[in-house]
Specification:
Layout (H helix, E strand, L loop, with lengths): L5 E2 L5 E3 L22 E2 L15 E3 L3 E2 L9 E8 L2 E9 L4 E6 L10 E4 L4 E2 L19 E2 L6 E3 L4 E10 L4 E10 L11 E2 L10 E2 L5 E3 L4 E8 L9 E6 L5 E6 L17 E2 L4 E5 L18 E5 L5 E6 L4 H6 L9 E3 L5 E5 L4 E6 L15 E4 L10 E5 L3 E6 L5 E6 L11 E6 L10 E4 L9 E7 L11 E7 L2 E8 L4 H4 L1
Parallel strand pairs: 3-33
Antiparallel strand pairs: 1-5, 2-4, 6-7, 7-8, 8-9, 10-11, 12-13, 13-14, 14-15, 16-18, 17-18, 18-19, 19-20, 21-22, 22-23, 23-24, 25-26, 26-27, 27-28, 29-30, 30-31, 31-32, 33-34, 34-35, 35-36
């Protein structure tokens, strides 16, 4: 079976001795609107039983295209006449699947829908066209962003990029699908439109955000392969009607400023703010302009996405000119604090206070703190966990570097790693390692860092072999398990 058509579900990786019918929902990218990446209710898996003797792959499922969106999970849904735990998967072929998460014999999806013809990558540009060294997504572009689920209404919201083959036009649609059947809800889908919004050249990579306070779904857009012309957008749609509520173009006079963050979702504080990070583009707000290239933006959900604060590095001009965009990484909002943390292509982690992001100063950065966390590119964002050994910390694994944890005192971080792995990741432009953490709260012996890493080669823009690893979250020098230890079963 080709790699293109194989998905190894995290939900299908559990103790070989027993099935674990977990009751923890995964409804959005990195688990919550703060994007912490943590599941604090894992009562079975721990640092003693996650090992090659007791843990490994149980089954796999076939899908019809590449998977860039994070699979989501809802327990205790009544489908097919009985209660099931369900994994939801979206592909670049514009298909959404609902699979039984526990039954190895249930290879047929509980339901599957296709949301339209995906866009062939060569429609955007075909290398070696000038300005098109490659297209980020091949061979087709469909559903790229992680969907979001509202269990209170039984709805999964999905954005699909499509081609109308009868007239060769291109479109983005927002779909509201019934969790139990996959049927369209709320009169959907609705087409996503805005002034200067050219669907062929736009890309919806950042995970969708459902904000309960405003009742809206928030979407972000950037480029496909930096091929012109695109704009960075944030848009709001009503979760109950799919009506467009607000549109923000972050660089309306000069284009660019895309928002993608390596797939990291927009951050929401569940009160009145959404946070987004822009990529290369013009920055002229300090001289009376309206463009926010290479900036962290605080948007008001009650004021139609008005920018109420921002941070722009003092070397923004250098970042923009040299394709070192801040927006390759997303942000994580540290629990029980006012701090927002993230990084970009320069490998620098920046700590921002959400009550005063720091804006722009040409001679120094008015952020809380920054340090060179990794020599490589940060794509995505750190994750957060409070260890019983050393307390609150963030974790990051850059390309060609070691998995590291930095401790947090409530305001700043100790920039010397508290613990780090002895395993170096494979270097490469797109090889920043996605992470998540599972634990039973902060109980000793339960914290596990999960890392889905390239095993060899640069994953930009090709497909390379991968490896899934598990580490003791309080002692990263201890690898508990990886998918190569029993390759015949797990690889």
């Amino acid at each position: 079976m080709s790699l293109l058509r194989r998905l190894l579900f995290a939900a299908a990786l559990c103790l070989l001795a027993q099935f674990s019918y977990a009751q923890v929902s995964v409804l959005t990218q990195h688990n919550d609107n703060s994007r912490t990446g943590q599941n604090l209710n894992e009562s079975i898996l721990n640092t003693s039983n996650v090992n090659v003797a007791n843990f490994g792959k149980l089954f796999a499922r076939t899908v019809d295209g590449y998977i860039y969106a994070q699979p989501l999970y809802v327990p205790n849904l009544i489908l097919g006449g009985r209660t099931r735990n369900v994994v939801f998967v979206a592909t670049e072929n514009n298909s959404v699947y609902a699979f039984d998460a526990d039954d190895p014999s249930a290879s047929t999806p509980l339901w599957k829908v296709n949301l339209g013809t995906p866009v062939p990558s060569q429609d955007i540009c075909t290398p070696p066209v000038s300005g098109c060294p490659y297209v980020d997504l091949v061979p087709q572009i469909g559903i790229t962003a992680t969907p979001v689920i509202d269990t209170s209404t039984g709805t999964i919201y999905v954005v699909a990029k499509t081609k109308n083959t009868s007239n060769s036009t291109y479109h983005f649609f927002l779909h509201a699908l019934d969790l139990l059947t996959g049927a369209e809800k709320l009169g959907g889908p609705v087409e996503i439109t805005a002034t200067h919004f050219a669907p062929l050249f736009e890309n919806n990579r950042s995970g969708l955000l459902l904000d309960a306070a405003s009742g809206n779904i928030y979407l972000a857009f950037g480029s496909v392969g930096d091929y012109p012309t695109w704009y960075g957008f944030v848009m709001a749609y009503s979760a109950s009607t799919l009506q467009q509520m607000a549109v923000l173009n972050v660089a309306p006079s000069a284009s660019r400023g895309g928002i993608w963050g390596g797939g990291q979702g927009l951050v929401g504080d569940n009160v009145d703010s959404v946070y987004a990070v822009t990529s290369n583009g013009s920055f002229d707000v300090n001289t009376g302009g309206s463009d926010y290239g290479d900036s962290v933006l605080k948007l008001s959900t009650s004021q139609s996405l008005r920018i109420v604060d921002y941070f722009t590095p003092d070397n923004q001009s250098y970042l923009g000119t040299n394709n070192v965009d801040l927006g390759s990484g997303g942000q994580v909002l540290i629990p029980n604090s006012s701090e927002l943390v993230g990084g970009g292509k320069d490998g620098v982690l920046r700590v921002l206070n959400t009550s005063n992001l720091g804006r722009f100063n040409p001679t120094f950065n008015a952020d809380v703190q920054e340090w060179q966390a990794t020599p490589g590119i940060i794509m995505g964002a750190p994750i957060y966990w409070s260890s019983p050994v050393f307390g609150p910390a963030i974790y990051l694994w850059g390309p060609g570097d070691y998995l590291k944890a930095w401790t947090f005192n409530g305001t700043t971080f100790n920039t010397t790693p508290r613990t780090q792995s002895s395993i170096r990741s494979v270097a490469g432009e797109a090889n920043s390692v996605p992470l998540s953490v599972s634990s039973n709260g902060s109980q000793a012996g339960t914290g596990i860092i999960w890392a889905a890493a390239p095993y060899s080669g640069d994953a930009n823009p090709q497909t390379v072999p991968g490896i899934l690893r598990a580490f003791d979250a309080s002692n990263l020098s201890t690898e508990l398990w990886d998918s190569k230890q029993n390759a015949a079963r797990d690889d």
